[in-house]
Specification:
With about 425 residues, this protein is α/β, with parallel strands linked by helices. It is about 25% helix and about 30% strand. It binds flavin-adenine dinucleotide (FAD).
């Protein structure tokens, strides 16, 4: 094994983690990361937060300094992979290189869903996935700011990236409107309680929301840039800059073209291995069965990229570890710190602890009286405790949590409600 060449396709959070973990586990063969982005692997979360606000410099985005990669003998190869020849175990790059692998880890991430509407190609309409996107968006904001008036900014999609950008835009002095086709914000990601609180928070900062309606198209303004958006409810909104934040799509086309099973992500088994024994897939591009979602789960989060990067390294080296890490995620919106753990989509009952009015509370989500997910707003202690509970299979009862005098730290295996399968 130690004479083998492991190629990691994609130099993002998951790909870099896999490379570092291979070395931590003692693999001394060749490790190469193929990346189609310039520079070192970098973190994406600041792109919609501190980096756009100018609170973080480009150099600080790198996940590891260059000398760490050199010390670990991890080769970073710049290039766009264009095909996988599974029979020959070769990866072709756009510049003509053909690289032979013994094991291939696909970590190609995801991209922003495109907006197929009339006028969507007008200058001034942006997406936000990469550093290049953030630089273009930041330049667009700076140009509007120079014009010296409170230019209207429109955000298409009331998800995490849209709301994080809304916080940035208002902090930078822009008038900001969010158009969301759902009847509330973050419909698939957060409980109505947390989403309602966040809507109020943004409204207090001046953000206007148009819910249960959609953008139908864009029109050019005086300079040929975007100037307005028409909504399906018949109204027109002025918009001198637009961010499209309507979800992500797995970068799985290369895998699909090589005959690997794909369906909203590259299908892998619980050990993150594709139908080809020599190929694994991780991070945003992979869809794997999970104890909480046996039919398959594709997550777009840093926590998942790190967990799967570590796990795949062990499995490539011959272990058979199963992916069962409890999902977790965070989002910073202005002063608000939102943390989530577990999967809350199918929850039937929720209990709130803390003070919603003060903006410090957690929503504990239950299904069959079992704790399934916890959302914490400015309550990091709850989040850490809930992570421990869910990782250990512990569940307080809804009654315990509803009792303000009950001490969550007192929950132990003996006092927890017995686990219910599923
Ligand atoms: C703006 C933004 C804010 C975010 N904020 C948060 C947050 O607050 N909290 C959180 O938990 N998560 C957040 N995320 C999500 C998190 O950053 C991602 O889930 C994580 O980066 C996924 O890692 P990955 O390695 O799977 O994919 P990526 O980091 O996207 O890396 C994939 C890499 O593969 C490259 N690639 C693709 N195809 C090819 C090819 N053919 N050849 C060569 N290279 C290729 C891509 O260009 C990219 O560099 C955010 C994401 C974005 C975009």
């Amino acid at each position: 094994m130690n004479r083998q060449h492991i190629i990691i396709l994609g130099g993002g959070q998951a790909g870099l983690q896999a490379a570092l973990s291979l070395r931590e586990l003692g693999f001394s063969g060749m490790v190469s990361i193929i990346t189609n982005e310039p520079g070192l692997p970098y973190q994406r979360p600041p792109l919609s937060k501190g980096y756009l606000l100018g609170k973080m410099r480009a150099g600080d985005l790198a996940l590891r300094p260059a000398d760490v990669l050199a010390q670990q003998n991890i080769a970073l190869i710049a290039g766009e992979a264009i095909s996988i020849d599974r029979r020959a175990r070769q990866l072709s790059l756009a510049d003509g290189q053909r690289l032979t692998y013994d094991r291939l880890i696909i970590a190609t991430g995801s991209r922003g869903r495109l907006c197929p509407l009339p006028g969507a190609d007008l200058p001034g309409i942006y997406t936000l996935r990469s550093k290049a996107d953030a630089d273009a968006l930041g330049a667009g904001l700076a140009q509007l700011a120079q014009a010296g008036h409170k230019a209207p900014v429109l955000i298409m999609g009331g998800g995490f990236i849209g709301l994080e950008f809304a916080a940035v835009a208002t902090e930078s002095g822009f008038a900001c409107t969010v158009v969301e086709r759902g009847t509330r914000l973050l419909e698939r990601a957060l409980s109505p309680e947390s989403a309602g609180y966040l809507q109020q928070y943004h409204e207090q900062r001046g953000v206007r929301f148009h819910l249960a309606t959609q953008v139908a198209g864009f029109c050019a303004g005086e300079q040929g840039q975007v100037g307005s958006a028409q909504l399906t409810d018949g109204s027109t909104l002025a918009a001198q800059l637009v961010l499209v934040g309507i979800g992500g799509i797995a970068n799985d086309e290369l895998a699909a073209a090589s005959g690997l099973a794909c369906d909203n992500g590259i299908r892998v088994n619980a050990c993150l291995q594709t139908s080809d024994d020599a190929i694994f897939a991780i991070g945003d591009c992979a869809r794997a069965p999970h104890p909480l979602a046996p039919a398959g789960l594709r997550l777009e989060s840093v926590g998942n990229a790190i967990d799967q990067g570590r796990l795949v390294a062990a499995n490539v080296l011959g272990e058979g570890r199963v992916w069962q890490a409890i999902p977790w995620f965070w989002s910073d919106q202005g002063s608000e710190k939102i943390q989530m753990v577990g999967l809350g989509a199918a929850c039937e009952q929720s209990v709130i602890r803390g003070d919603v009015m003060q903006g410090r509370f957690s929503v504990f989500c239950f299904q069959n009286e079992q704790l399934r997910a916890v959302e914490s707003i400015n309550r990091p202690v709850d989040h850490m405790l809930a992570r421990k509970w869910l990782e250990q299979g512990l569940s307080p009862t809804p009654d315990q949590l509803a009792d303000p005098n009950w001490d969550p730290k007192s929950l132990s295996k003996s006092s927890a409600s017995p686990p219910v399968p599923g």
